[in-house]
Amino acid sequence: MNPKFVARLWSLSILIDLSLAALTSLTLQGPASLPVDASPPLHPSLASFSIETAFFISYTGNLSSPNLLTKNLFENLKNRTGVPAEVRIGGITADSTYWDASLDTPLFNFIDDQGALQNTTIGPQFWDVVREILPEGTKITVNLDLQDLNFTGALEVATSAVEGLAPGQLVAFEIGNEPDHYLSFTPENYTEIWRPWSVNISEALNITKPMFQLGATAEDPLWPYNTPAANAQLDCVSALAAGANDNNTVRYCSEHTYQYSVCDPARAQVATLTNLVNHTRVAQYLDLWQPRINAVREQLGDDAFVIGEYNSVSCSGRNNVSNTFGQALWLLDTTFYAASINVSRLYIHQGGPLALQSSTQLNHGGFSFYDLWWPVDNLNGPTQVFPSYSSYLFVTETLGTSTNLRISNIFPGRQENGSSITTALGDDSAGQLVVYGFWDESLPSGTDFPSKLALLNLQAFNATNGTGERPSVNFDISNYLPSPDTIVTVRRLQAPGADVKAANVTRWAGQTFEEGVPSGELVQETIDNGLVEVEASGAALVIL
Ligand SMILES: *[C@@H]1O[C@H](CO)[C@@H](O)[C@H](O)[C@H]1NC(C)=O
Ligand SMILES: *[C@@H]1O[C@H](CO)[C@@H](O)[C@H](O)[C@H]1NC(C)=O
Ligand SMILES: *[C@@H]1O[C@H](CO)[C@@H](O)[C@H](O)[C@H]1NC(C)=O
Ligand SMILES: *[C@@H]1O[C@H](CO)[C@@H](O)[C@H](O)[C@H]1NC(C)=O
Ligand SMILES: *[C@@H]1O[C@H](CO)[C@@H](O)[C@H](O)[C@H]1NC(C)=O
Ligand SMILES: *[C@@H]1O[C@H](CO)[C@@H](O)[C@H](O)[C@H]1NC(C)=O
Ligand SMILES: *[C@@H]1O[C@H](CO)[C@@H](O)[C@H](O)[C@H]1NC(C)=O
Ligand SMILES: *[C@@H]1O[C@H](CO)[C@@H](O)[C@H](O)[C@H]1NC(C)=O
Ligand SMILES: *[C@@H]1O[C@H](CO)[C@@H](O)[C@H](O)[C@H]1NC(C)=O
Ligand SMILES: *[C@@H]1O[C@H](CO)[C@@H](O)[C@H](O)[C@H]1NC(C)=O
Ligand SMILES: *[C@@H]1O[C@H](CO)[C@@H](O)[C@H](O)[C@H]1NC(C)=O
Ligand SMILES: *[C@@H]1O[C@H](CO)[C@@H](O)[C@H](O)[C@H]1NC(C)=O
């Protein structure tokens, strides 16, 4: 994301009412049956990754020296669903990435005297790494360079990917990263270039099915959405309207979401932990995309809309905000809420600050403060895993190996018009309590009862709160159980507070993952009275 971004709805903000008395209990009303607004079956790779092209090898290592931390962290996710997280290789550096068949190392970053990354070159060993180091079966999306308007260069990278990846490994090409930030593209003149490129690349590589992911745009949708200004934005829907899919080359559409930013001081002011960990704000933000999601799915199918790059705070995150356990709660809520409004997959962005990205940004060098882990020692600190990684364990374990799991946000839920229920509309928890239900039609409980519930208590509790007692909420889930004394299993996402930054005190089902592999005994509880207590700044997965 870059700074010439227009003010978003939030900047009009809204004073936070600190006098709100926190709830201590919440009775879920039911009914227990599959809600009408439930999603189609969730994609097993709902929780996926986008890795900045220039930083890719820093994450994976190379064949003679693979990064074992990265390998293990990916394998843990695959082990829970049976299907690896997908990886999109892209970001701002993809628009200055070139192919060199004679390069004797996987990747070379050209860094100038000022320390600015000018461009990136990849060679044959790059694809060997992608093929061999990520878990077997990892699907890859490759972001090609559009900004140079050099078709030959884009085709060379595309050809190298087709030749270098395992058969079936490539799921899509993107042409350009955040093209709404350069060359003053309109939907029409973007499409005039994008469409023939997608056709010519398909023909050159004997690709006979739709293989392209449209969009990869950065700007948030203007609201209201059906105005001339909103329709003039470059995005998936306007590009489709301009004929991007006239030659049947579009498989998916991607748009990027960054709810907060430190690209400039004005936006840095609102990029706080308190704002981040608030369901009302998450839902209002993602709701901006609902009209586009609906339009894309109508034209291209149920699984066609993806958030192909996202994180919490653009321009590489913020220390003490996006590297905390609060980010873990934000990530969990964002992933599930997006799934509940029919986003098929979300690719959390990993990498580092780029000197040329914004002259007013807070971060310079090292790795990003929003990464789920740092694969190597860097300017910002040593190799480490962050609390937010454990949220992807929560998500993948919720999905399990089911291919029939459907989600609905059952508290605070959504209005009939699809937008979220907010404090003003009756969410007494002020965006602090969130519940998602999951129904699995392949199980005997079918559409009558959920097979799982995710309970989130986003109320702020800081580990640095001295001796203050930790509040908690009792969720009464009896209305979702076949009988009030049904025995359920509970696994928890826990940390000493929303402000902690260490993986060695962040527990998923009792285990920590600071070394990439589980440490400690697995902990789960059984409950037989329909009451599940969840501490402030905590979450629980209930398995029926
Ligand atoms: C996860 O790993 C365990 C232990 O190796 C194995 O038994 C199980 O089948 C794996 N699960 C999946 C879904 O791959
Ligand atoms: C592989 O990575 C190691 C460790 O970073 C490095 O020393 C080595 O030069 C790399 N090999 C290649 C071919 O890039
Ligand atoms: C990368 O940038 C440097 C410095 O501007 C330039 O000399 C070099 O030719 C560029 N590399 C490629 C492959 O364009
Ligand atoms: C376009 O890309 C090709 C292949 O990388 C390169 O040989 C050529 O010089 C580029 N053209 C321009 C105008 O930069
Ligand atoms: C697209 O059209 C706009 C408006 O006419 C123009 O400013 C811009 O330069 C064009 N971009 C390209 C790449 O042609
Ligand atoms: C794409 O192919 C068409 C037909 O062969 C050709 O006219 C056009 O110049 C090509 N476009 C590019 C960017 O290569
Ligand atoms: C595409 O098919 C043609 C004709 O069958 C073949 O000559 C060519 O090598 C193929 N290209 C690729 C990239 O597979
Ligand atoms: C692409 O679609 C356009 C518009 O329908 C059509 O004129 C053109 O012939 C198609 N190109 C190819 C290569 O099929
Ligand atoms: C969460 O955000 C909403 C919308 O900005 C606000 O009304 C509400 O008070 C916030 N909740 C808390 C606990 O600050
Ligand atoms: C601090 O502790 C008090 C007393 O238990 C609690 O009400 C409050 O929510 C806590 N605040 C934070 C941010 O941890
Ligand atoms: C909790 O910690 C965060 C990060 O250190 C801080 O921004 C926030 O103000 C703290 N909240 C309270 C109520 O102390
Ligand atoms: C967690 O790691 C930090 C930093 O390495 C260390 O200071 C702390 O003692 C560790 N805590 C536990 C509970 O292992």
UniProtKB/TrEMBL annotation:
Q: Which UniProt keywords apply?
A: Hydrolase, Signal
**SUPFAM superfamilies membership:** (Trans)glycosidases (SSF51445)
- Which Pfam families does the record associate with it? Glyco_hydro_79C (PF16862)
- Domain Beta-glucuronidase C-terminal residue range list: 448-541
Q: Which GO terms describe its molecular function?
A: hydrolase activity
Answer whether the UniProt record assigns the keyword Signal to this protein. Answer: yes
**Keyword Zinc belongs to the record:** no
Q: Which InterPro entries match?
A: GH, GH79_Enzymes, GlcAase_C
Q: Which positions make up the signal peptide?
A: 1-21
Q: Which PANTHER family match?
A: BETA-GLUCURONIDASE, BETA-GLUCURONIDASE C-TERMINAL DOMAIN-CONTAINING PROTEIN
List the protein's name. Answer: Glycoside hydrolase family 79 protein
Question: Per the UniProt entry, what species is this protein from, by scientific name?
Answer: Dendrothele bispora (strain CBS 962.96)
